[in-house]
């Protein structure tokens, strides 16, 4: 009896603690923040024509040169890490990882950069890729390393230098001489207003699945977004899935429609690549519909919950999914070209539109 009485305050304290834990926002994982070496984990197969030692003979220091550059540049401007990661994603989802997003428009039409989703890509990221390419050209005596490989490596190193996992990047991509149309960009890159069915529709077309979608969306653990990307959730009526305190924060940044300001994608740890993005989603603090719906929709909810609990699980899946994404529709062997300037096709390359005009003229018997 005495024993039971002496335990009573302890039990009461434990009950209060449990209640507090249940009602408090889900806290960050207690796991140590570590970089996961994915080399020992199950990685997707390497696409034919790519290999991990592609530049072993032609430019053995290629990876080191990219890493040193990114390390230095990200230390000076942490936003560049977000810019480089997003640039690789916008390259791969449209026409494959062929560096077509880097091509300036030409007389034949506007390039991919002129399409709405690409208007907010960071100019500093484009410049960094060209600067890395120049450095590689000097050190490797010529145009040896493709712009698409530079993009893939710079994205990986951006993740690492902002606190995320490392993963092995297969190399040997070649660059396209042709950019996609603005319509292709729009259909390849989902809008921030998309819900899970629409998102899955897009990613399945390019060989990715639910786990890839959830893990890759975790790229939103760093970087910024303009009010225009999420103001539809605030006006004329607030989206009821947004938690009241987060809604207050969003309205502070974007008090009316049309305000040109930016806010962090992950307000908990905006500059750190970690799993807090998922903690935000569980607490109804996702910035875009495309983020929050990953937790609302039953098809992806459990994966979000798992990544919110375990940073290690997130890091592991992120590495696998980035390798998958980085191999979408790659050009290899004698396809494409190694661009001498990442912003322009090599001189003498025939643009697509000319190829099409010639083919049409030929079929009409004009020559
Ligand atoms: C799944 C569908 C996705 C949608 C709808 C989406 C949409 C967006 C939008 C609208 C922005 C903000 C643009 C602005 O207002 O300036 C953004 C930023 C960003 N996205 Fe995504 N995104 C998606 C997937 C991804 C993926 C797969 C990655 C990388 C693996 C990624 C990485 C980023 C990063 C790092 C930023 C911040 C860029 C910066 O600060 O410059 N996103 N995204």
UniProtKB/TrEMBL annotation:
Signal sequence, start to end: 1-29
Reaction equation(s) it catalyzes: 2 a phenolic donor + H2O2 = 2 a phenolic radical donor + 2 H2O
Residue ranges occupied by any Plant heme peroxidase family profile domain in the UniProt entry: 49-346
Cystine bridges: 59-140, 92-97, 147-342, 227-254
Main subcellular location of this protein, as a coarse class: secreted
Binding residues for Ca(2+) 1: 91, 94, 96, 98, 100, 112
EC supergroup of this enzyme: oxidoreductase
Record site: Transition state stabilizer: 86
Keywords: Calcium, Disulfide bond, Glycoprotein, Heme, Hydrogen peroxide, Iron, Metal-binding, Oxidoreductase, Peroxidase, Pyrrolidone carboxylic acid, Secreted, Signal
Ranges annotated as spanning the membrane: none
Pfam families with a match to the protein in the record: peroxidase (PF00141)
EC number: 1.11.1.7
Protein name listed in UniProt: Peroxidase
Natural source organism: Brachypodium distachyon
């Amino acid at each position: 009896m005495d024993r039971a009485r002496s335990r009573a305050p302890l039990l009461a304290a434990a009950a209060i603690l449990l209640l507090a834990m249940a009602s408090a926002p889900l806290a960050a994982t207690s796991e140590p923040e570590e970089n996961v070496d994915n080399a020992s984990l199950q990685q997707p197969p390497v696409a034919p024509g790519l290999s991990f030692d592609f530049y072993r003979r032609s430019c053995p220091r290629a990876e080191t040169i990219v890493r040193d550059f990114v390390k230095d540049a990200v230390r000076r401007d942490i936003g560049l890490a977000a810019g480089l990661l997003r640039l690789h994603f916008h390259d791969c989802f449209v026409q494959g990882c062929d560096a077509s997003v880097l091509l300036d428009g030409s007389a034949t039409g506007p390039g991919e950069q002129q399409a709405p989703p690409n208007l907010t890509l960071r100019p500093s990221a484009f410049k960094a890729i060209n600067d890395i390419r120049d450095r590689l050209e000097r050190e490797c005596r010529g145009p040896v390393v493709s712009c698409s490989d530079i993009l893939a490596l710079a994205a990986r190193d951006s993740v690492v230098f902002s606190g995320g996992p490392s993963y092995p990047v297969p190399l040997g991509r070649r660059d396209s001489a042709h950019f996609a149309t603005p319509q292709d960009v729009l259909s390849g890159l989902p809008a921030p207003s998309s819900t899970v069915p629409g998102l899955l529709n897009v990613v399945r077309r390019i060989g990715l699945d639910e786990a890839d979608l959830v893990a890759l969306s975790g790229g939103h653990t760093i970087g910024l977004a303009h009010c225009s990307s999420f103001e539809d959730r605030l006006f004329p009526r607030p989206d009821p899935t947004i938690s009241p305190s987060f809604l207050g924060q969003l309205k502070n940044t974007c008090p009316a429609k049309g305000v040109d300001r930016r806010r962090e994608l992950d307000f908990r740890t905006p500059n750190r690549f970690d799993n807090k993005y998922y903690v935000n989603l569980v607490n109804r603090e996702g910035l875009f519909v495309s983020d929050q719906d990953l937790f609302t929709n039953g098809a992806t909810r459990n994966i979000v919950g798992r990544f919110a609990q375990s940073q290690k699980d997130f890091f592991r899946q992120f590495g696998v999914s980035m390798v998958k994404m980085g191999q979408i529709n790659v050009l290899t062997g004698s396809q494409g070209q190694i661009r001498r300037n990442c912003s322009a096709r090599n001189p003498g390359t025939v643009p697509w539109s000319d190829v099409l005009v010639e083919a049409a003229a030929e079929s009409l018997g004009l020559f």
